[in-house]
UniProtKB/TrEMBL annotation:
It catalyses: a (3S)-3-hydroxyacyl-CoA + NAD(+) = a 3-oxoacyl-CoA + NADH + H(+). It holds the Pfam family 3HCDH. The record marks 140 as: Important for catalytic activity. InterPro entries: 3-OHacyl-CoA_DH, 3-OHacyl-CoA_DH_NAD-bd, 3HC_DH_C, 6-PGluconate_DH-like_C_sf, 6PGD_dom2, Mito_3-hydroxyacyl-CoA_DH, NAD(P)-bd_dom_sf. This is Putative 3-hydroxyacyl-CoA dehydrogenase. Coiled coil: none annotated. It comes from Bifidobacterium subtile. It is an enzyme of class 1 (oxidoreductase). PANTHER family: HYDROXYACYL-COENZYME A DEHYDROGENASE, MITOCHONDRIAL, PTHR43561. NCBIfam families: PRK08293.1. One of its GO terms (biological process) is fatty acid beta-oxidation. It comes from the Bacteria. Keywords: Fatty acid metabolism, Lipid metabolism, NAD, Oxidoreductase. Its EC number is 1.1.1.35.
Length: 282
């Protein structure tokens, strides 16, 4: 799997693109927004700085070579024409993902393996919208994938076991530690543990039990963890929790979505990747 196409160039999509290129893959970055594509050079500079910070031995030459392996386009047919594997990282809404996979199936080569990076949605909800359910599965990344490098590989009932094994190998090739999820599970392993933790923090904030800073401080001091829950939200980026909570049946979750929209998203505070979220970053 040398030719990689990534659908979506947001926070996590851009990380997948850069990491795959850094590990020697030829990568096409696809987005429906030309404005998003125009911002990618700035994003590559941000990621170069992050790699230098976390890997002191990395060279400028290696980072520049990674960028040279990336091509961007807003033409879906062009993006997929040579793809061995396509990784979807579009907004976390089932209708958007289903529509995307229907369009991808119309133009992707027969050889292409399809992977969704969905954080919460089951691949079996998307597989019927493809023309190859036997070649469809999940490959889920944690944020800041160059150092938080788990790659959760999760099949759905129709996935060919050989395809599953090939994606495990691909994950290893791009520097991930493959986590074999043996049964289809909303949230995989990571988010099945992380999401309840983050929801508890949101509930405390929305109900004015404690401030964001004190909630984070409590968690860090009492557990020895390096990050509090709202620092995790900043890593994830504001749009994902907003999309996941805005239509919730739980009024606290809906209020959380509304508050992060009006107090943060509408002010351009989109998370650590944008330099500002719940906290400010250099």
């Amino acid at each position: 799997m040398q030719q990689v196409t990534v659908l979506g160039t947001g926070v996590l999509g851009s990380q997948i693109i850069f990491q795959a290129a850094y590990k020697g893959k030829d990568v096409v970055a696809y987005d429906i927004s030309d404005d998003m594509l125009a911002k990618l050079p700035e994003r590559w500079e941000y990621l170069k700085k992050a790699y230098r910070h976390d890997f002191p031995d990395v060279t400028d030459e290696a980072l520049d070579v990674a960028v040279s392996r990336i091509r961007s386009t807003s033409d879906l047919k062009d993006a997929l024409k040579d793809a061995d594997i396509v990784i979807e990282s579009v907004p976390e809404r089932l209708d958007i993902k289903q529509s995307t996979w229907r369009k991808v199936s119309e133009v992707a080569p027969a050889k292409t393996v399809f992977c969704t990076n969905s954080s919460t949605l089951l691949p079996s909800r998307m597989a019927p919208f493809t023309d190859r359910p036997d070649r469809f599965l999940s490959l889920h990344f944690a944020n800041e994938i160059w150092k938080n490098n788990t790659g959760e590989v999760m099949a759905q009932p129709q996935t060919d076991p050989k395809v599953f094994d090939s994606v495990v190998q691909f994950a290893e090739e791009i520097g991930m530690v493959p986590i074999r999820v043996r049964k289809e599970q909303p949230g995989y392993v990571l988010n099945s543990m992380l999401v309840p933790f983050l929801r508890a923090a949101a509930d405390l904030w929305v109900r004015d039990v404690a401030s964001i800073e004190d909630i984070d401080k409590t968690w860090r001091i009492a557990t020895g963890a390096p990050l509090g829950p709202f620092q995790f939200y900043d890593l994830i980026g504001m749009m994902t929790p907003y999309m996941l909570n805005k239509d919730s049946s739980d009024p606290v979750s809906r209020e959380f979505a509304e508050r992060i929209k009006t107090e943060y998203i509408d002010k351009g505070r989109l998370g650590k990747g944008a330099g500002h979220g719940f906290y400010d970053y250099e």
